[in-house]
Structure formats: structure tokens, C-alpha cells
Amino acid sequence: MNNGNMYVFLAALLFSMQPILIKFGSTQVPPLLFFSLRFFGTMAVFLPLAMRFKKEMHLALKQWKKFLLPTIFLFGAISLFTISLYFTANATLTALVTKSNSILIPLLTAAFFIEERRVLMTRRFLFGVLLSAIGVIGVILGGKTLTLTLGIGISLILGSQVCWSLYSVSIKRLISKENRLHVLSFIFPLAFVFSLPFAGIEIFSNAVFKPVFLLVPISSGIIIGIANVMQFKAIERKGLIVTNAFGLTIPLFAGIMGFVLFGEMLTVMQFLFGALLLMGAYFIINCKCDVRTVD
């Protein structure tokens, strides 16, 4: 497995751990405090890196406006996604619905980046997306009956994926001109600042500190922090469309972990279509078109 493929795989695997972490935390931590702690943990990972880029960070502070939109999109994506699991209470289903971004990101990317359009039109990529899309639909068919609470949860997930798609495209434009690590080192602390008022509301209303709260920033820092670094490296080497499309494997990884940890059952149909999903991802990740954007 070459470096580009390894980064794509690791990013998908780490991101699949998010709904598992949130499902566990949703039984222990109030929602507004939860996503604020997640931002804090990720900030703690990237803040030391910011010390390595003092000149760049000083310049970023002067040019803060160009980081504002990606930060807003990131904040919306993570906060809505976190709160959604308080309604769905199902890590596998949540991971499945997030794959709606596999439609949004390619469309937005092709609209803004000429080099990505070449990948979008290759036969291998289109065949891989077709197989993966069929796989995702097949896994969804084994889901729950829709209720009002579940509908609210799914709506929140879809909103988070709109934000994530806009974040992915806007961040790609930044890393084509800036050092990827200093971009992350600026955006995540800024997103944490955005979350502080929500944490304050929760703390001053009814939140009582518990030792388990400490697990949220620690685990989130590791998962979100490293996953974003892996994703940036993957985008750099494989392109945004390929990286996003391989993310179709996230529901399968999340489903396996959900079954092992929480007893969330996968039906025979889900396993079969999950295999089809992986087959499609294999074709996607092995697209030969060079779409590097950073030397």
C-alpha cells in the first residue's frame, strides 16, 4: 500500500470511530458540553503545532477573514453531528447517513477545481462510485423504521454533512496555498472559541462534572486530530474526490465496531452490501489520475 492509499485508509478508519465515541459519550455528557469538549481536545493537539509556525500564525491572525468560513463550516459539521447521535442513538445508522457527502463533495469540488474533474470522469472512478453507492443503499435498507426522533437526528446529520462538504472544499483551496498543519493549527483553536458560549450555557444550567468528561477531549483529540492530518495528506496525494469517495467504507467500519461494542446488529444483507461497498472503494482508491495540489 503506497503512502497515499495508507493515508486515505487511516483517515476513513479514524473517522469511523467518531460515532462510536459519541454514542458512548451521549449517555454520560450533556450535548452542548460534549461538542465543546471535543473541540478542546482537538485544539490541545494542534496548539503545540502552532508554536512551530509562529510567523505563519502571526500572519494568519492578520488574515483571519480567509480562515473564518472554513472554521464556521467545521464548527457546524462537528456540533450538528455530535448532537445528532443524541436522537439516533445508533452509531451504524449515523455513519451511513453521513455518506450523503459522497454526492455533495464531488459536485462542489468539480465546480471549483479543474484538476479534480479528470478523476470524476474516469471509468474506474465511476464504476467504483456505482458499486459503493449500491452498497450504501443496500446497507441502509436494513435500518430502523423512521420515527419523529429519528427523523430529527437524520436531519441534523444531513445538515452536518452539508457543512462538512463546504468545509472540505474551502479547506482544499487553503491548503493549495498554505502549509496544511498551520491551517489546522489556526482553525481548530478558533472553532473551540466558537464553542465556548455553548459550553457556558450547559455548565451554568445543569451540568455536574464527572471524571468521565475527561475522556471526551482526550479521545477526541486523538481521533479528530490525527484523522484530519491523515485526511489532509490523503487529499494532497489522492485528491479530494478520491479521498471522499473512499470514505464510503466508514459505515462498514463503524458497523463492525458498533456490533462489537454495543451489540448493534448487521443483517446478512448489510454484510453482503458492505462487501460490495469495499469492492467499489478498491476501484476508487486505485484511480491512476494524478491530482496532487501541493508539492
Give the fraction of residues assigned to helices. over 70%
Strand-residue proportion:
under 5%
Characterize the overall form: globular
SS field, number of helical segments:
15
- Which structural category do the helix and sheet elements fall into? mainly alpha
- How many discrete domains? 1
Q: Return the average pLDDT rounded to an integer.
A: 76
Please provide the ordered H/E string of secondary-structure elements.
HHHHHHHHHHHHHHH
**Low-pLDDT residue spans:** 289-295
Describe the structure in your own words.
It contains 15 helices and no strands. By secondary structure, the protein is an all-alpha fold. It has one domain. The longest helix has 28 residues, at 148-175. It is globular. The two termini are 21 Å apart. The relative contact order is 0.23.
Sum this structure up briefly.
The chain has helices at 3-16, 18-25, 31-50, 54-62, 65-88, 91-97, 101-112, 114-120, 123-140, 148-175, 180-205, 215-238, 240-246, 250-262, 268-285. The chain has 295 residues and is an all-alpha fold.
List keywords for this structure.
295 residues; mainly alpha; globular
Question: Topology, pairings included?
Answer:
Elements lengths: L2 H14 L1 H8 L5 H20 L3 H9 L2 H24 L2 H7 L3 H12 L1 H7 L2 H18 L7 H28 L4 H26 L9 H24 L1 H7 L3 H13 L5 H18 L10
Helix pairs in contact: 1-12, 1-14, 2-6, 3-5, 3-11, 3-12, 5-10, 5-11, 6-14, 7-8, 7-10, 7-13, 9-15, 12-13, 13-15
